[in-house]
Amino acid sequence: MAIAKWATPSTRSSNFASTALNSLANAGESSVVTYDNSTNRDLYGVVTLKLGSITPATGGSITVRITLNDGTDTADKIGGDLYVVPLTSGASAKVAVINMVRLYPLSLRFSVVNNSGVTLAASGNELYVRAFNEDIV
């Protein structure tokens, strides 16, 4: 009988947010940054969001939005898969690791909605994906 097991994860991507998150205003949404999964066709990913030092308001959060490009059309930034990450209080750099993000075999568009209560730092903001699949043994 075949058994599904986790395959060895790929190496973490480079920071593909570039400067899109720098100085992002509270209640603002970043420009879209692309993670192309059309060649690798990975099934899942661990998404890591690193924020430069901020002091979020109580109850502050960040939302990672993933929309798709089907090869012809790109979805508007009104739907997609949403991952809401509560932020810890206190002045410091923040790191959020989002597990089991579903990846699609297309060009993925990531954006970040800032609901932290403050403007994001002017630098030190990064976004990574570490993709993985399953093996059938």
How would you describe this protein?
The chain is 0% helix and 46% strand. 21% of the residues are buried. With 137 residues, it is mostly beta strands. It is built from no helices and 9 strands. The radius of gyration is 16 Å and the shape is globular. The strands form 3 sheets. It has a 4-stranded antiparallel beta sheet, with no helix packed on it. A 3-stranded antiparallel beta sheet has the order 6-3-8, with no helix packed on it. It has strands spanning 4-6, 33-36, 44-54, 61-69, 81-86, 92-102, 107-115, 126-132, 134-136.
Structure at a glance:
This protein is mainly β and 137 residues long. The chain has strands at residues 4-6, 33-36, 44-54, 61-69, 81-86, 92-102, 107-115, 126-132, 134-136.
Keywords:
137 residues, 0% helix, mainly beta, 3-stranded antiparallel β-sheet, single chain, 46% strand
SSE arrangement:
Elements: E1 4-6, E2 33-36, E3 44-54, E4 61-69, E5 81-86, E6 92-102, E7 107-115, E8 126-132, E9 134-136
Work out the helicity level: under 10%
Helix tally equals 0
Major sheet: order of its strands? Answer: 2-7-4-5
| Average pLDDT reading | 94
* N- to C-terminal distance: 9 Å
Query: How many β-strands, per DSSP?
Result: 9
Element order: H for helix, E for strand: EEEEEEEEE
For the sheet with most strands, the description reads: 4 strands, antiparallel
Low-confidence stretches: none
Rg, please? 16 Å
Strand content: over 45%
**Helix- and strand-based class?**
mainly beta
Shape: globular
